[in-house]
Amino acid sequence: MDGQFQPQSVFWKVSADLLGVNDATGRFRHTNPAWRTVLGWSAEEVEAFRYEDLLHPDDVDRTNEAFAALLDGRPVMLFENRYRHKDGSYRWLSWNAVPEGDVFICSARDVTQSKADAASLRTREEEARLREQFVAVLGHDLRNPLTAVSAAMRLLSREVQSERGTELIRMTTEAADRMAALIGDVLDLARTRLGEGIELARQEVADLEAVIDKVVDETALSYPGITIERSYDLGGPYLCDPGRLGQLVSNLVSNAVTHGGTDRPIRIEARDDGTDLHLSVANEGEAIPEDKLPLLFEPFARGDGRASQNGLGLGLFIARQIARGHGGELTVASDDDRTVFALRMPARHPS
């Protein structure tokens, strides 16, 4: 027998791999200390077993075939099976074994973690593939029919319709618009989860105040009687995505109305300090509990921790992603007087 496989050798004692000398009956004559380290069994305990006594039931037949190969004088390399730990769990082992006279010299490496890592990687890859398919379905299979519906409604609206027909066209158009917005929100969520981030189309915006006003006016139409106070001190031009910033403002104003009420004023402020662009939306109302504040920017949840009852509950999540896409951040502060969402982003100007 090779000297390094002698039980008294230093290699035998310090090896991290499980080493063993097995006889033709399947019993281990000698095992090294690594067996206790990896599997919890003492040398005396292991040597009282046949190799198959510690096997996972599903691996018995395959291992018997490998042992038959050894009996036939053939080496076995990189053979994997599961051995039972003394605590009842199983460890994956990768074996190399060669015949040596009337015994077999065996070594096994614990590959449990690498097997788990490989399985985890496969799971992540499959999840990524499914997410990509999901994005494709949303972006093409759902959006295209919806676009056709919207186009058909626009064409019908140009024709003379009865009062009932006009109302049905209006309702269908609004429903299609809401569905398009929901699909857009879910697409943004999916792309963010894929690591792609929010899509931005930066351009030179000379009048950012007008962009904000347009969005605020459109949002206000949905909430008759709401008072929205505005204060601007902006320069420009700015290099940004006006559509996305408008979406951010719309989401913040809608959130302020929902949680502040239409009978209380909402205040919007925007200013440029020369380095950063600051925009805030404040509403009066009850304070948001401090332990709920971290949840506000999570998908599908509101400040009270329940699922959103309006839309999908993605508005604040997407608003923060838009802020981060512009190199900024969106934060929230709430007390007994008011709740304020504040955007800070670099005031980038076209070069």
Automatic annotation (TrEMBL):
Gene3D superfamilies: 1.10.287.130, Histidine kinase-like ATPase, C-terminal domain, PAS domain. Its EC number is 2.7.13.3. Residues 23-74 form the PAS domain. It comes from Hasllibacter halocynthiae. It comes from the Bacteria. Its main location: membrane. This is histidine kinase. The keyword Repeat does not apply. It is a multi-pass membrane protein.
